[in-house]
Design goal:
The chain is mainly β. Helix content is 5%, strand content 52%. It comes from Paraflavitalea soli.
């Protein structure tokens, strides 16, 4: 199956002459951030290449890096990684009907995922239908995750360890926008398949929502027959920035089977707030997200499992040089800083009243070079502090990461 897919794609690529990239399809973040495009537009806001006269366009991006990290002074040495190779295929089926899919190969071919495969039907700007494999719009990163848009090699901890990054499911829903001169208002509403009980029965031995990504059956059936609802409302001002509020919730356990009641319905609910803005004159780009998770746990579960979680990140990206470098007319050098935090277990021990820790904090200074808006060379220094349940002295993870990410 894998060979067939790769062969088909290679035939398309090698049998036609590519047209030029339409620069309007890519938001030049953080060099240019003055349009009314939003995070919800990220799925189409990418560079595509047209194959001759065929009604199919293709694109993608790749990420590769080198890292040297140590855990409390112990290191595995130099590591070279091919993190991702992602392919996009899109087609305008007819007027107001379009299809797009995103296929991702992670760590070589250890994981192959269909992250998005949806038919969009436009009735009006305020009312559009979407059906297929949908990327649940919880927070901002889940939709706007392409590597070339970021100055940091690792994805945010809160987006990968609290929320399941690139979380997608089969379902249907509606989305739309309303424009004014300087403002745009947007919404998304979806019903999809959702989580399973792996969020509390996993190898992490903690409440861990990303464990549900291991359930590939969610693309053909629901674990418990209850839909997951995801909704988002966002507002953006041309000169101020974008603010988004999203919610995702549903039943995660199997409460009934063959008519036999096994347990009461137990819910998982997530609320996320995201914001991004570009400061005038300095062109400083600020991007942040914060999420809260609430899980209804069975009574027999110990306090090792958290019923409440929270975490988020904030990125500050400052262009310091923007001019012609070598043969690139609008090359940019940025300095950046990411601060991030994830608390896997918010609360106190019932018997002692002491604080439950089980959290991680990280700081990541970075420098990046963008010869074009579609390609970024980046160097990061990661410094993480991990604390266990009891709050013992933190385990420290630190080291350098150097890599490249580019659309193609």
């Amino acid at each position: 199956m894998k060979r067939t897919l790769l062969f088909a794609i290679s035939c398309i690529v090698t049998s036609a002459v590519w047209a030029q990239i339409d620069p309007e399809l890519l938001r030049r973040m953080p060099v240019k951030h003055d349009s009314l495009q939003m995070n919800m537009d990220a799925v189409y806001n990418r560079p595509f290449l047209q194959v001759g006269k065929l009604p199919v366009a293709i694109g993608g991006y790749a990420e590769a890096n080198y890292q040297y990290l140590s855990d409390n002074g112990v290191s595995e040495g130099s590591q070279f990684q091919m993190r991702r190779l992602t392919l996009f295929l899109s087609s305008s089926l007819s007027r107001r009907i379009k299809f797009l899919t995103e296929i991702e190969f992670e760590d070589g071919t250890r994981e192959i995922n269909i992250e998005f495969a949806s038919v969009d039907v436009e009735f009006s700007p305020l009312l559009n239908f979407r059906g297929g494999v949908i990327m649940n719009p919880i927070g901002a990163f889940n939709q706007n995750h392409d590597g070339p848009k970021w100055e940091f090699i690792d994805r945010p901890i809160s987006a990968t360890r609290l929320l399941p990054a690139t979380w997608s499911n089969v379902g249907f829903g509606l989305y739309g926008k309303k424009f004014t001169t300087d403002w745009v208002y947007a919404y998304e509403l979806y019903l999809t398949n959702g989580f399973d009980d792996k969020i509390i029965a996993n190898s992490e031995n903690r409440t861990f929502l990303p464990a549900s990504k291991e359930n590939r059956d969610r693309f053909e059936e629901s674990f418990n027959g209850s839909p997951l609802f995801t909704g988002k409302f966002a507002i953006k001002h041309r000169k101020v920035g974008e603010l988004g509020l999203s919610y995702m919730g549903g039943v995660y356990n199997k409460f009934k089977e063959d008519g036999l009641v096994l347990d009461k319905k137990r819910r998982v609910d997530v609320v996320a707030l995201d914001f991004n803005s570009t400061l005038p004159r300095l062109n400083t780009f600020i991007n942040g997200e914060w999420a809260w998770t609430f899980v209804n746990l069975p009574d027999q579960y110990t306090e090792q499992f958290g019923s409440k979680q929270r975490g988020g990140f904030v990125d500050i990206v400052q262009p310091v040089i923007k001019r012609r470098i070598f043969d690139w007319d609008n090359a940019v050098i940025n300095i950046a800083l990411r601060a991030e935090y994830a608390d896997y277990n918010v609360g106190r021990f019932r018997q002692t009243g002491g604080n439950i820790y089980d959290n991680v904090t990280a700081l990541v200074p970075a420098i990046s070079f963008r010869p074009t808006a579609q390609t970024v060379f980046r160097a990061n220094y990661r410094h993480e502090w991990h604390r266990d349940l009891l709050g013992n002295p933190a385990t420290k993870v630190a080291g350098f990461q150097i890599g490249i990410s580019t659309y193609f």
